[in-house]
Amino acid sequence: MTAEFDVWDELLHQYVSDRVRVSYTVWKQNSTQTLNDWLAQLPVVALQASDKNHQL
Q1: Which of 9, 13, 38, 50 sits between 20 and 30 A of 2, alpha carbons compared?
Q2: For 37-49, what is each residue's pLDDT tens digit?
Q3: pTM of the full predicted structure?
Q4: Which own/partner pairs from 31-40 qualify as long-range (CB within 8 Å, at least 24 positions apart)?
């Protein structure tokens, strides 16, 4: 199971400056639902069931 990170990458490019500062206020106002939708589609990974190499 793999996650698609295109949405995450787009959000970072949109709300993180070149000086690595996050515009949390604007992000919250404009894209909260986009972030929540993306987080909801992430696969659930049971790390306890994975071997140590996969956890890293």
Answers
A1: 13
A2: 888 888 776 555 5
A3: 0.63
A4: 34/7, 35/11, 37/7, 38/7, 38/8, 38/11
